[in-house]
Amino acid sequence: xxxxxxxxxxxxxxxxxxxxxxxxxxxxxxxxxxxxxxxxxxxxxxxxxxxxxxxxxxxxxxxxxxxxxxxxxxxxxxxxxxxxxxxxxxxxxxxxxxxxxxxxxxxxxxxxxxxxxxxxxxxxxxxxxxxxxxxxxxxxxxxxxxxxxxxxxxxxxxxxxxxxxxxxxxxxxxxxxxxxxxxxxxxxxxxxxxxxxxxxxxxxxxxxxxxxxxxxxxxxxxxxxxxxxxxxxxxxxxxxxxxxxxxxxxxxxxxxxxxxxxxxxxxxxxxxxxxxxxxxxxxxxxxxxxxxxxxxxxxxxxxxxxxxxxxxxxxxxxxxxxx
Length: 323
Fold this sequence. Notes:
Layout: H1 24-34, H2 39-47, H3 51-60, E1 67-70, H4 79-88, E2 107-110, H5 125-128, E3 139-141, H6 149-156, E4 203-207, H7 208-211, H8 219-224, E5 236-240, H9 253-265, E6 279-285, H10 293-306, E7 309-315
Helix pairs in contact: 1-2, 2-3, 3-4, 9-10
C-alpha cells in the first residue's frame, strides 16, 4: 500500500515523512556545501518532512548510484530534485569537484505521478531532462505531460553515442477535477527527425501517433519519409497504438496495408530505411482481432519481398501492444 491508492482520495500531496531520526544539522551542512539554488527552502521543507526534499537529499548523498527508480508516489513534486540535478549534472564544466557526478548511474526510472490528472498544470519535464547528461546513461524511463516532439528529440542528442534501447509511451486521462469524463484531445508539436542522430539505438517502441500522426490523412506523407526519422542502427521498430482511438483514427485493414505499401512495397523503399532494420511491429485495434485473409496475405508478401519481418499485435485498452 502506498500513498493515494484509492481513487476517492483527494490528497494533493503525500503525507509528511517522519524526520525525527534524520540528522538535520548534518543534512543542513550538506545542503549548504552543495550550494544549490533554493537551499534555504530545501532545508525548510526537509525539516517539514516533504517527500521531494528528502528524495533530493538521499540522491545527493549517493554519488555512486548505479540504478535509480522513483515510483509514482515520489515524483508528485520534484522541484528540489530538479534544481539539484541541474546544478550538478548539467554544469559539469563549471562546478566544484566536490559535487556528485554520478559517473556510474546508467538506469533511471522516473514514473508518472500518482493521479496524473490532478497535476496537469505542472510540467515536470525540466526536472527529468538533466538525467540525459549522465555520462554512463544506458536506459531512462520518464514521464511528462507536455508532448513536444522536437524538444524530446533534442534532449536525446545528449546520449546519441550510448543509448541502445529507448521506449516512448503516451497516455491521457480525463480531468475529473473539472468535470471531464473523456480523454482530452492531444496535440503534438514538432517532429522526431532528431532521433536519426541516435546512432547506437537498436530497439524503439514508440506511439504510431508520434511518428505517423493522429489521422489517416497524415499517413502518406509521414510513412513515405519515415526512414529519415529512424536511427541508422535500428533493428526493431515497435509502433504502439497509444493515443489512437476508434473515433480519431480508424486503424482498419486499409490503413494498415496502405501504410506498409507506402513504406516497403516499392523496390527501392527498403533502401530508405535503416540497413539493420529486421522487424516492424504495427498496432492492430483490439476489436479487429486479426486482419482478413486478403490484407494479411498482402502484408506477408511485402514482408517476404522486403526482407523485413512484419507483425501486427493487438492494442490493449491503454494503447499498449500485447507481446
